Amino acid sequence: MDKITVAKGDGIGPEIMDATLDILLNAGAQLEIDEIEIGEQVYLAGNTAGIAPESWESIRRNKVFLKAPITTPQGGGYKSLNVTTRKSLGLYANVRPCKSLHPFISTKHPDMDVVIIRENEEDLYAGIEHQQTDEVVQCLKLISRPGCEKIVRYAFEFAKKYHRKKVTCFTKDNIMKQTDGLFHKVFDEIAVEYPEIENEHWIVDIGAAKMADTPELFDVIVMPNLYGDVLSDVAAQITGSVGLAGSANIGEECAMFEAIHGSAPRRAGQNLANPSGLLQGAIMMLNHLGQTEIAEKVQNAWLRTMEEGIHTYDIYKEGISTQKVGTKEFAEAVITNLGKTPETLAKVSYEKGAPLNLPKYERKPLADKVLVGVDLFVHWPGFDANEIGQILQKLNSEKAKLTMITNRGIKVWPKGFKETFCTDHWRCRFSAELAQMEKDEIVRLMADAVKHNIDVIKTENLYQFDGKQAFSLGQGQ
Length: 477
Ligand code: NAD
Fold this sequence. Notes:
This protein has 477 residues and is an alpha/beta fold. The chain has 3 domains: 1-88 and 240-343, Isopropylmalate Dehydrogenase, CATH 3.40.718; 108-233, Isopropylmalate Dehydrogenase, CATH 3.40.718; 369-469, Alpha-Beta Plaits (2-Layer Sandwich). The protein has helices at 13-26, 40-44, 53-62, 81-88, 145-161, 179-191, 204-213, 225-238, 276-289, 292-307, 327-336, 385-393, 439-451, and strands at 2-7, 31-36, 64-67, 93-99, 113-119, 129-131, 137-139, 166-171, 198-203, 220-223, 246-250, 255-259, 310-311, 323-324, 369-379, 400-407, 410-413, 425-432, 455-465, 468-469. Strands 2-1-3-12-11-4-5-10-8-9 form a 10-stranded mixed beta sheet, with helices on both faces. Strands 17-16-18-15-19-20 form a 6-stranded antiparallel beta sheet. It has a two-stranded antiparallel sheet with strand order 6-7. The termini are far apart. Residues 12, 16, 69-72, 82, 243, 258, 261-267, 273-274, 277, 314 line the site of nicotinamide-adenine-dinucleotide (NAD).
């Protein structure tokens, strides 16, 4: 018997959760359910995270969480419960299978069978944002080596376990050479350890276009958080319906399983909603718990029901579907089909055994880190780069000299183009005159900036790691 935490959520949540649990328990799933309340009522009761402390305890104790969608109240101040849960519990991998059910669900891509594996904890999704000047706001994109290693290894281990042939990586490392560059580099390093699995890398723009056009060319795709957020919805939608996809959020300790859609409040309480997305999440949960035979039984019965054309309103199509049913009737049809297998679609059989178990991250020996300069970010409401160049040169010393100014990444000093539009946000690069800069020199620059009334809004140190420059040049430098 596995004890799990269940939250029925908001909107259509309770109906689709009841239907899902009904199917699971009728199939013989060995589940003991610990129910918690999350979502709208908890938010409105004054808990800005949408979850009470005792509910966290239940999830952390049971380690497996089946969650229905929730409604995030309109207006500011409410933190996304999904993001909070993923990050607080270290659920680093988001796994979303997207498979066509042609000819039973209409799709332009009959042979599509893609699994998107999205990094779930970092990237622009860390939500570290600041307003720095009147005109400029910033979102910090953090990519870490442990983050990359964990997700890339998970993708290859997933491919191995589920007999997938290829892992593709999407990044934008032609532009973001440090952040996406690290993701791609780690992908190349880890791919070597799996010679039996094909690997490839695409720049995300053309990769996304190809995935939307010819998804049958892809198998497992691994990518950083934000690209994964967007493209996993695209992938689910082009199989025929986002309403059919589930997802797993996997961490070293805990895991959360859910549908990818939201709480569809307008459809709530009318016995209309399709429980398939949540059911798909629940099937991944059964596999995670090692209840593989039950997972197989439920999936085959669901496929059979899809084939029989017993469809909820969202996927019902004249000519393909045979019966339009409500949530409860759909669940009953799946229950009737337990023990049966699909006749046209491929029957599933899952590998027995424990969930994927990845080695713990090991920190590498420290690199040789040398400070070679500093970027002072300055708020200055002028437009003329030569003028701010003159002002900033007042800070030059024997140890550090102004070598470059960029505006939104484009070099504007020295020798900028008069055509370049400049905002009030200037990156002023001071480089060491010698091979190395002392940290004191940064303090001196800051103190002199205050004396000269220069409004420094932040600094970034410029380093070499093991002799390699570890910061970007200015565009046009
Ligand atoms: P939504 O996914 O809830 O609904 C969009 C539309 O899709 C609905 O109007 C409905 O027509 C259809 N739909 C979605 N799921 C369906 C199902 N199972 N069966 C049949 N039809 C279905 O997206 P939304 O309207 O943008 O968001 C509604 C609420 O859900 C918001 O409060 C949002 O914050 C929340 N939300 C929650 C989650 C989550 O908890 N995981 C995810 C996304 C959105």
